[in-house]
Amino acid sequence: MKRFIGFVKKEFYHIFRDKRSMFILFGMPIAQIMLFGFAITNEINNVDIAIFDQSKDTETQQIINKISASNYFSIQQEIQSESQIEPTFKKGKVKAVLVFEKDFIKKLETSKKAKVQVITDATDPNIANTISNYITSILQNYTLEKNKNNKPIYQIQTQTQLFYNPEMKSVFTFVPGVMTIILMLVSAMMTSISITREKELGTMEILLVSPLKPIQVIIGKVFPYIFLSIINATVILLLGFFVFGMPIEGSLFLLAFESVLFIVCALALGILISTLADSQQTAMMISLFGLMLPVILLSGFIFPITSMPLPLQVISNIIPAKWFIIIIKAIMLKGASLAIIWKETLILVFMTLLFIGLSIKKYKIRLE
Amino acid sequence: MKQEKIIQVENLTKKFGDFTAVKGITFDVYRGEIFGFLGANGAGKTTAMKMLIGISNPTSGKAIVAGFDVLTQREMVKKSIGYMSQKFSLYDDLTIKENITFFGGIYSLSRKQIKEKTIQLVQELEMQDVADNLVASLPLGWKQKLSFSVALLHEPKIVFLDEPTGGVDPITRRQFWEMIYTQAYKGTTIFVTTHYMDEAEYCDRVSIMVDGVIEALDTPKKLKEQFKVDSMNDVFLKLARNIE
Lengths: 368, 244
Description:
The structure holds two protein chains of two kinds. By secondary structure, chain A is α/β, with parallel strands linked by helices.
């Protein structure tokens, strides 16, 4: 035990005396969560639009007022002719143009029908989509209001209710995502680098010649990172909860248990990488391209897995991060219990055991 | 010779797939001697040494180190030996004192022992002024001497030195060999590999490995007589040429 404490102490010296490690460990999580939380977002706010009103009557004016009254849009300019529409987009000042047809109010009164055209700048398809959805729903509300007094003959109303994230806050997906990335980065990359560093410097040989058993060396090296990962996870959750209002509906204990499971899984991966790589550089490369990219791209953190092509969907199954994101989203947003997420949990347990088993096998081959 | 055998090697063999790196070597090392283990790069001396210090399993054959079998009593072997590798073997980002404490700790020295050893060692090496500095700030020669002292911290019966003086200036090499002599005089067996043929002259006995086989083993004096040359360097060259 005393040997173990001495070992861990030495490991902490390594970490605290290395500026790069300190930055990755403590600077990155906070920077990332702040970036994702504040800067990178799918929500739209005060999007600049232009109006091409060919009718200019009381009805179109009311609709325009309605739109500018919402926080989503701010009307930047009035366009006078059709030929101005494209140049306006090209200047990049507005994301959408709203076109009211001629004799708007007259058509409404005579044929009960009038047209509004929504033209969006689809160079950014997600935003274009969101904009047209928002405008459509504002217009729908407006017509509903108008129809209140004179009963229409036949009408189907959609009432949408958004469960678990009623305000569609993107933070709710980013907090679990960032937590996953950070835990993966700290656990897998940092451990693989710290183990390969000892190999590179030749101190690993000294440790193996000492009475320490190889397993003790590995546990001693990995332990500080378990500790630091748990601190990181806590910091991210606290930031998410207090700064961004991310709910934690489910049991904290279950959340902690699943996080530790994922941390151990990532550590096992880190150890496996360190048995494959001989230098810190290789370890870093494998971690970055073999782990970080798949975690960011294929875990469902940024791009929904269901909309990926089939082969990628299949590949995403072997990424531990995918399962962890499903688990923590379920716990935090839906208040899920273990009874609901047992399958994902089992998959993570299985993967962890697999990585540990592979590392041990690899390690033995090395020794012989 | 009636000396006590501290290392006994019999038919020790190591194969990597089809390639046999060590081809059934047999030799003994006696307590308190300085045993030079020589050979060109790729002759198999590092592989042989790795089997003796318990980080590589022999394919066949037997090796008893400090009374323990390297295959079945590895833990006991490890407790009885010290090791210093050709790569510098301390932590650069730890201070001298922290390094001593750490290595003392993994060899299960008590806190009191570590304290005493630290004071004694720092004094012997005349490093009192820099004891709290990071090892990275020391010149290479000092690091090497510190490394050797740390390998001796747990008072091992045998210390294995893998090319300990690589890249060190001649004066430091000289001082380093003085340390080795002092330690051998105290009864510690020294097992040393080296590239420098002048260093081979300092050894009590020398073995020369060529292509996985020990081609010669005797005192430097007798080896020179046997090959009718004036220096160990010529012995080495003659052996290498004969094989070709």
